[in-house]
Design a protein that fits this description.
By secondary structure, the protein is of the alpha+beta class. Helices cover about 25% and strands about 20% of the residues. It has 13 helices and 23 strands. The chain is elongated. The structure holds zinc ion. The site of zinc ion (ZN) has 5 residues, from strand 5.
């Protein structure tokens, strides 16, 4: 205990300390820096927690977050993080040694001081009267290189003031500075660590023994290199590690797949390889879970991306093809609509639809039917010929008053451009 602390102690014991309120709020001795939060330096967790603050002995509700692994009032933490980042950009590593203190903590320090049996017997402010309890005070690592000089030169620009001349470590924020900060979004925001990860990402990766760089877990024995913590966790559910966003590993049920792939295929009793469901009794070998599911809706299995199986309503077709053909009352075989009363046998659903616009059915991709103006023609040919008042037969325009009977629409227009008519494919 130094001389000033002794004087204070005497003043307190004698009950005449009321004129020394500012000094009561001071620390008296520099808090011991055990440097246990070095690894968390620069990390801000904005997960807000309610606590009880005190000012002049009166309690009030206070919101506390974590900065450098130490508790700090949210406004103070925001201002501090902005200042800390600015200092870091100039090569100065500021760190909180002691931040917000609960009543129990301050009572502990006070008890140590009164009984001189802990905390070195250092002077402590009376419980309820420390600005560490009001949320305004941070004790910083001013004994480390360059920190105090930087704070003396720049702290005020960020709203931080040294309120006790003899205590170089004790800085208070009562407002001011440029504003902003990682926890300004109402808490829970994405505070960034120097390595380009959010606090949550860094903590999540740490759960797997990984560090975090640029949003992904990383490191030698890390189970999820190149994956987020969530991906690592998800792959772990399948007994896999995770590499570059894909599950991986010897007995892993989803090698080369995302955990979602593995989970989705697992619903069908399949393993997953390279994002495709796979395995002996798996109904969707070589298909994604979605393909497997979609084919299953038609009573089909799925093989290599196409629906398949004995009683399957669309073998060799995708589920979409089956569905589209089904809209015309057709089944689908190898991607073409098909079936007894199907208006488009041997045609895709699009062909059926297009021919249907002319009142035609579609056979093997050509429009067809009794009153169809384009028998033996595609819907496009039928349409082109119709622009000349022609029908279309077997790929050529046709009809009594048609100016290009026996010619395609293209031939007809080319001949017309030469001032000629068109017949049987030739300009006349
Ligand atoms: Zn302090």
């Amino acid at each position: 205990m130094n001389a000033r602390a002794w004087w204070l102690a005497v003043a307190l014991w004698s009950g005449c300390g009321s004129s020394s309120l500012e000094i009561y709020e001071a620390d008296g001795e520099e808090p011991f820096d055990d440097r246990s939060n070095i690894a968390q330096q620069g990390l801000v967790s904005c997960d807000p927690r309610g606590d009880t603050g005190y000012t002049n002995g009166s309690s009030f509700p206070i919101t506390v977050v974590s900065a450098d692994g130490r508790r700090a009032e949210i406004g103070t933490a925001n201002a501090y993080a902005v200042m800390q980042a600015a200092a870091r950009n100039q090569g100065i590593g500021i760190r909180i040694v002691s931040g917000f203190r609960t009543m129990a903590e301050q009572q502990y320090f006070w008890g140590c001081y009164v009984n001189r049996n802990c905390n070195g017997g250092n002077l402590a402010a009376r419980p309820g009267h420390s600005n560490h309890q009001s949320g305004h005070a941070l004790d910083l690592n001013t004994s480390e290189g360059g920190v105090l000089n930087w704070l003396n030169a720049h702290g005020a620009a960020y709203g931080f003031k040294r309120t006790v001349p003899s205590e170089s470590w004790h800085w208070e924020w009562w407002g001011g500075g440029p504003g902003g900060g990682p926890c300004t979004g109402g808490g829970g925001g994405a505070a960034m660590t120097p390595s380009g990860c959010t606090t949550a990402q860094a903590e999540g990766c740490g759960n797997f023994g990984c560090s975090c760089a640029s949003g992904s877990c990383s490191g030698g024995f890390c189970a999820g290199t190149g994956c987020s913590a969530a991906q690592t966790q998800a792959c772990g559910n399948f007994g896999c590690g995770c590499v570059d966003g894909k599950c991986s590993g010897g007995f892993c049920d989803g090698t080369g797949s995302t955990a979602k792939n593995a989970l989705d295929c697992g619903k069908f009793g399949c393993s997953t390889v390279d994002g495709q469901c796979s395995g002996g009794f798996c109904p969707g070998t070589g298909c994604t879970a979605k393909m497997t599911n979609d084919c299953g809706n038609f009573g089909c299995g799925c093989v290599d991306g196409k629906c398949s199986g004995g009683f399957c309503d669309g073998p060799g077709s995708t589920a979409k093809m089956i569905s589209d053909c089904g809209n015309f009352g057709c089944k689908s075989i190898d991607g073409k609509c098909s079936g007894g009363f199907c208006p488009g046998t041997g045609s895709t659903a699009k062909m059926i639809n297009d021919c249907g616009k002319f009142g035609c059915k579609s056979i093997d991709g050509q429009c067809s039917g009794g009153f169809c103006p384009g028998t033996g023609c595609t819907a496009k040919m039928t349409n082109d010929c119709a622009n000349y008042g022609c029908g279309c037969v077997d790929g050529a325009c046709a009809g009594g008053f048609c100016p290009g009977t026996g010619c395609t629409a293209r031939q007809t227009i080319d001949c017309q451009n030469q001032g000629k008519g068109c017949g049987a494919g030739k300009c006349l």
